[in-house]
Hints:
- This protein has one domain.
- The chain has four helices and four strands.
- It has helices spanning 2-29, 62-86, 93-115, 137-163, and strands spanning 34-38, 42-49, 119-127, 130-131.
- It has a four-stranded antiparallel sheet with strand order 1-2-3-4.
- A hairpin with a 2-residue loop joins strand 3 (119-127) and strand 4 (130-131).
Amino acid sequence: xxxxxxxxxxxxxxxxxxxxxxxxxxxxxxxxxxxxxxxxxxxxxxxxxxxxxxxxxxxxxxxxxxxxxxxxxxxxxxxxxxxxxxxxxxxxxxxxxxxxxxxxxxxxxxxxxxxxxxxxxxxxxxxxxxxxxxxxxxxxxxxxxxxxxxxxxxxxxxxxxxxx
Length: 164
């Protein structure tokens, strides 16, 4: 159990570090710039996100926004870690490591909120004039982790229950 849970932390830590490195890069090299990577589809651009996903709560009073986002993120991190720890030996690999992706990503965005007061986003996908909200490695990690975890629940665990 301890060895597997240590691997959980290695994955979470790697995501956290990758997120911070890419955000530092974005802050240093993308300030007031737009760098097209794939014309008419993907840019690198620094965007400061005071809110949460899709800019939600971005216009809320600062103290309300700060406390809500810090507390919510902290609760998600604690629940995810406790769930992974409690189920270290029972969870399939995909689900177990998906929780590490969620934890690492949440820690990356929590770091930004605590020490910078807003999250550094820099990945900008768009078609024509429609831009998907900019995001970062932490956001991607959380999204992929949630998709893997939920997909496993829906497509694999449910089938096991149906046939047993």
